[in-house]
Amino acid sequence: MTREEAKKILAVYRPGDEDRLDAHFAEALRDMERDEELARWFAEEREFDRAVTDHLKSVPVPFGLKTRILANVAPRAATRLRWVPALASAAAALFVLAVLISVSRGWGQPSGSVSDYEQEMMSFVKLEPPLEMESLEIGPIKQWIAERKAPLADIPPGIAAVETMGCRILSFRGHPVTLICFCHGNTVAHLFMIDRAALPALKPRTLPVLTSQGDWTIGTWADQRYAYMVAVHDGPAAARRYFPHA
Amino acid sequence: MPLYRFALSLSREPCDAADLTQQTFLLLASKGHQLREQSKIKAWLFTSLYREFLRGERKRGRESGGEEELADVECPSIVANSLDGDAVVRALLELEEIYRAPLSLFYLQEHSYKEIAETLDLPVGTVMSRISRGKARLRNQLADSAYPRIREQEIA
């Protein structure tokens, strides 16, 4: 085996018994022990690999991702008791165990798709997602959304008076969701529009139903075609100006 | 969460990676009961995430390109402890998908070569060759990105 051939093999070597005991690596490792230059190269390669691994493993996971996944997975998983034991043994144990804990808490609770939708959309905006399109004017935003055939209706009164930041297309149970972000002073507000067929439990009504999630106020309502949700990062009193008829 | 980091290496966008990770867990919730071997859940998650990614890419008309020969490219020497974390991740994300996917799984150190091959639906030999070439490309990108900084330091 030439030095270059050995390098090619050792370039993909990983510490641990599995590679060390593999015949494919064994010969190259033996060569390395007899070749000082190859040994130096290999030591440098290992250092490089270790550095890349450390950097890749330190990439932060978006804040709220686990919450968002749990909010979506738990209601479905609650009906599937058969594979709960299987989940418990997943190698990504901490994460999956967190799912299980949530599942066990969710047993017996009725699933509310509107509440699922609100939770999922909220956990998403709490990630502070990058916008796919940014504009301070609603015209170009509407045009961008229309081109993508995503849900688009007249901007509801209240929030329509606020300056836009941009938009993004999301998804809920396979249905596209239009997210338009607004900003007034230091207050951020998000408008979500989805085909009402995605939320069959939500009957058409003009008055939004207001709820709170932490320091966010959420209003949800629907017309015949679309379901609307406005989330305002403020208390209920201050948030009312962003909702229609509120 | 290694699954999210693998998703990020594929999609290159934190939000898309979060969507992909979530979608994979939704799949586990709906199909996980079909898994017969409990020990295979981790491999199942990574394989499903990769397939979801490929499905999305096909929908968007973005297929991965062919493999170019890189055997003759010389790998520059890089001092590992001088590597900047952001630059490393950026360089990794800039690689072509055919190198990015196996290389990420290699560096995440969660899988054997056999598992990487199964996840990516490739022969083990191809996985190894892509990792080797991917590493060469990664080193070249890191050297390229470091060069202007070194020049600036020299001028200063």
Report on the architecture of this protein.
The complex is a heterodimer of chains A (246) and B (156). Chain A has 246 residues and is of the alpha+beta class. Chain A contains 10 helices and 7 strands. In chain A, strands 1-2-3-4-7-6-5 form a 7-stranded antiparallel β-sheet, sandwiched between helices. In chain A, a hairpin with a 2-residue loop joins strand 5 (205-213) and strand 6 (216-222). The N and C termini of chain A lie far apart (79 Å). Chain B is mainly α and 156 residues long. Chain B is built from 7 helices and no strands. In chain B, 70% of the residues lie in helices and 0% in strands. In chain B, helix 5 packs antiparallel against helix 6 (113-120). Chains A and B meet through helix 4, helix 5, helix 6 and helix 7 of A and helix 1, helix 2, helix 3, helix 4 and helix 5 of B.
Quick one: biggest sheet of chain B?
Answer: none
Question: What is the CA–CA distance across the termini of chain A?
Answer: 79 Å
**What is the total tally of β strands of chain B?**
0
Strand content of chain A: 15-25%
Could you name the CATH topology of the largest domain in chain B? Arc Repressor Mutant, subunit A
Strand arrangement within the widest β-sheet of chain A reads: 1-2-3-4-7-6-5
Largest interface: A-B, 47 and 50 residues
CATH fold label of the largest domain in chain A: Phosphorylase Kinase, domain 1
Quaternary organisation of the protein chains: heterodimer
Q: Round the mean pLDDT of chain A to the nearest integer and report it.
A: 79
Give a short synopsis of this structure.
Chain A is α+β, with helices and mostly antiparallel strands and 246 residues long. Chain A is built from ten helices and seven strands. In chain A, strands 1-2-3-4-7-6-5 form a seven-stranded antiparallel sheet, with helices on both faces.
